[in-house]
Amino acid sequence: MQIFDLAGKTVLVTGASGGIGLALVKGFVEASANVIAADLDPEPVAAAMQGNDSVMPIALDVSDASAIDEVLAQARARFGPVDILVNNAGVKSGERLIDGDRKKIQLTLSVNTEAVLNLTRLVYQDSMKKSGGRIINIGSSISSRGAILNYQAGGADYCYSKAIVHDLTQLLAYETAPQGVTVNAIAPGIIHTPLHDRPAEETEARHSGRIPLGRIGQPQDIVGAAVFLASEASSYITGQVLHVNGGMVMSD
Fold it and tell me: Which residue out of 151, 158, 160, 174 is catalytically annotated?
């Protein structure tokens, strides 16, 4: 449907070489968008999308403001200003908040929350303040039931960081609405990606019994939600957290 068509749009996806990131890159290309595929190591996405002129793989440390400025300049020269930002880059950690390693906790917060805000601010100033746009943050369903489910996420610090992402999404949605920017989050449940660092069968056995749809998710399960939130089909939706978790967490 034309309402989901992203032709002529430029999408910046961070963490583009990971499981969800690479699936998002492929999904946006299929929706006819141009994609800046940014990652600390862009080689995996470059290899997967080799020869596709709609994709620009590029190295990016999302905590480096000067590097972000350079990426935005290169993106503008290649495809034009960024219309859609997907804050997907993140790290997973296993620290308890009450007595965990403070340096590891701070790193999790730095990458999963502060970098999201900093990149969003720079993209907003570069293009969205004048032209509007879409911002999609990748949160986590675990953060909605952190005290109960943090064993699945790997650590309370990860749950904490993603809960901040959800709140940040709503705060930014409120602040940027007058400029025609929508800000939403996708909260994946248990998705089989390299981040789990275990075979899919093990993840399935460990978690599927707690998921009403009876299976863990795959990176492709996130794509439809992302394309929807990036498209005109979601033009009257902002400040929302869309859970994609097979019913593992049901929010009111």
Answer: 158
Confirm whether pTM is higher than 0.70.
Answer: yes
Q: What is the pLDDT of residues 114-128, one digit of tens each?
A: 999 999 999 999 999
* CATH number of the domain within which 48 lies: 3.40.50.720
Q: Is residue 11 part of a domain?
A: yes
Tokens of 128: 């969205």
Domain that holds residue 209: 2-244
Residue 250 CB neighbour total at 10 angstroms: 11
Domain annotation covers residue 251: no
Phi-psi region at 57: left, alpha or beta (left = phi > 0; alpha = psi -120 to 50): beta
Q: Is residue 252 part of a domain?
A: no
* Residue 158 annotated as catalytic: yes
Please tell me the total count of domains within the chain. 1
212 by Cβ neighbours in 10 Å (0-12 / 13-18 / 19+) ranks as exposed
In tens, the pLDDT along 135-191 reads: 999 999 877 665 555 555 458 898 899 999 999 999 999 999 999 999 999 999 888
- Terminal Cα distance for the chain, rounded: 30
